[in-house]
Design brief:
Chain lengths: 107, 121
């Protein structure tokens, strides 16, 4: 099975900072990667699919990029409402594995 | 507005069975593949199963952790997805989310609010 390694496991940043979360696949998955946001106590929400396509209604400060088997979620200008755990998920083939999650909070 | 609502969770002993239901509204249910994702308390997300739309044969796939014990099904006439869970283990304790799989891709674009399943003796 393809493994998804997400890093860091947690980070703390100031409001307005640029934040980057990385997800690395153990094998090639093309662009079959999604990012989700789970605010504490809430249901996960799709942010980005196909590695870099912003889901409708998601603020433009969120962006995704890919380079080979490494995928990055970037939050430009971190806002208080972005405090959440972020997960990557690959879906090129089963099993559709999630990363371990990155907890983001405000410094 | 597209919406999913799960039901059927509860507290039960190891080895027992349970069926979760998910009713969809606000979209043409039969056009979409559906999936179940679970989250154990304080843990991350785990995909467990999906079922394709009828147009794609209603094909099912399962994670190794549930294969042979869980069965996903759908009733397009009623806009329901189901998860039959047999031989439950304490490790199956989790919030179970019903999710819609986006057309043209396999990301989960709509999530239900989740239903809690607790397996304990």
């Amino acid at each position: 099975d393809i493994q998804m390694t997400q890093s860091p496991s947690s980070l703390s940043a100031s409001v307005g900072d640029r934040v980057a979360i990385t997800c690395r696949a153990s094998q090639g998955i093309g662009n079959s990667l999604a990012w989700y946001q789970q605010i504490p106590g809430k249901v996960p929400k799709l942010l980005i699919h196909s590695a870099s396509t912003l889901q409708s209604g998601v603020p433009s400060r969120f962006s995704g990029s890919a380079s080979g088997t490494e995928f990055t979620l970037t939050i430009n200008s971190l806002q208080p409402e972005d405090v959440a755990t972020y997960y990557c998920q690959k879906y090129n083939s089963v099993p559709w594995t999630f990363g371990q999650g990155t907890k983001v909070d405000i410094k | 507005e597209a919406q999913l609502v799960e039901s059927g969770g509860g507290l039960l002993q190891p080895g027992r069975s349970l069926r979760l239901s998910c009713i969809a509204s606000g979209f043409t249910f039969g056009d979409y593949a559906m999936s179940w994702v679970r989250q154990a308390p304080g843990m991350g997300l785990e995909w467990i199963t999906f079922i394709t739309s009828r147009a794609y044969g209603g094909t099912t796939e399962y994670a190794a952790s549930v294969k042979g014990r869980f069965t996903i099904s759908r009733d397009d006439s009623k806009s329901f997805a189901y998860l039959q869970m047999n031989s439950l283990k304490t490790d199956d304790t989790a919030v179970y989310y019903c999710t819609r799989i986006a057309v043209g891709g396999n990301a989960f674009d709509i999530w239900g609010q989740g239903t809690m399943v607790t397996v304990s003796s």
